[in-house]
Each structure stands twice: as structure tokens, then as C-alpha cells.
Amino acid sequence: MEKIKSFQVDHLRLKPGVYVSRKDNFKDVVLTTFDLRYKEPNKEPVMDPPAMHTIEHLCATFLRSHNDWSRKIVYFGPMGCRTGFYLILEGDYISADIIPLLLEMLDWIEKFSGVIPGATAEECGNWREQNIDMAKWECRRYAALLRKASKENLEYPSNMV
Question: Is it the case that residue 132 has pLDDT exceeding 60?
């Protein structure tokens, strides 16, 4: 079998940021997959599972409810390595196109209070594993990175793939 593209990225040199992981054509529609890399792989501790689970619930809720973007959201979910998330959008985008959306989402999470959406036994298969405080900490950290993002955080270097 051919090695998939995400396993061809040099994770020893990958920095936190937002990257276009792939673009797929589905009939006449382009689907853009983003690598929302919160952690530096193999150098930083990975995200705490309860915090990551909370981020997943909050981000998915925000994105699928967004006035301008909700119809373009195909998927939001965690990476198995726990260093970030994948976001799949309908359309042909570059990383810079979604920075405002991501910052709006992260700001919403920072201000969020109340019951975590989907965190009941009826709605989630692991509803008790949530950590809003750590989720907010991870999102604040990622937002600070995105506010000062440069080419290094927005494009995989050509020699890394």
C-alpha cells in the first residue's frame, strides 16, 4: 500500500499551526482538509484526552452553527496522536482563509460557560470525559499562535512532504 500523505510529513520538523493537509475533488466540489496542529509533535506533551474531547464538542458545535461557514463544514475531529484536529471544508481554501474563523471559534470557547454541548449520556458515548478548563487553556495557547502566524505556521515547507 502507498503511504498516505499525512505520514509523509516530517513530524520531527513540524511546528504548531494550521496547514492544508490535502485537497480532494468529489465530483465538481473541492474538499480542503486542514491540519490544526496545536502541539509540536514529539517535543511537547500531547493534549489531555478530556480537554481534547471538550474542544471537539465545542468546536464542532460552533462550526456547525456558524452563520457563514456552517454549510461548508464537512468534519471536525481529533487526530489520533492528540497533537491537534482535522477540519474538512467544502471549497478550495488556503490556511490564511480560515484564520479569522478559527480565531472567532477560539474566542467563543474562551468565553463559553454552561453545559458542554453533547455532554450527556444520551448524546455521547464517553460524556463524562470532559475538561473545560484545560480545553480553554489549550485554545488560548493556540489562538495566541494563530494571531502571530507566519508562513512557517501556515504552509508545510516543500521539503517536509
Answer: yes
Phi, psi of 130 (to 5 degrees): -135, 150
Mean residue pLDDT of the chain comes to: 94
How much is the pTM?
0.94
Query: What per-residue string of b and e applies to 2-25 under the rule 16 or more CB within 10 Å gives b?
Result: eeeeeeebebeebebbbbbbeeee
List the one residue out of 32, 41, 8, 33 whose CA is nearest residue 159.
8
* C-alpha closest to that of 135 among 104, 101, 112, 157: 112
Q: How far is CA 28 from CA 23, 88, 91, 96, in A?
A: 13, 16, 10, 23
**Residue 107, pLDDT score:** 98
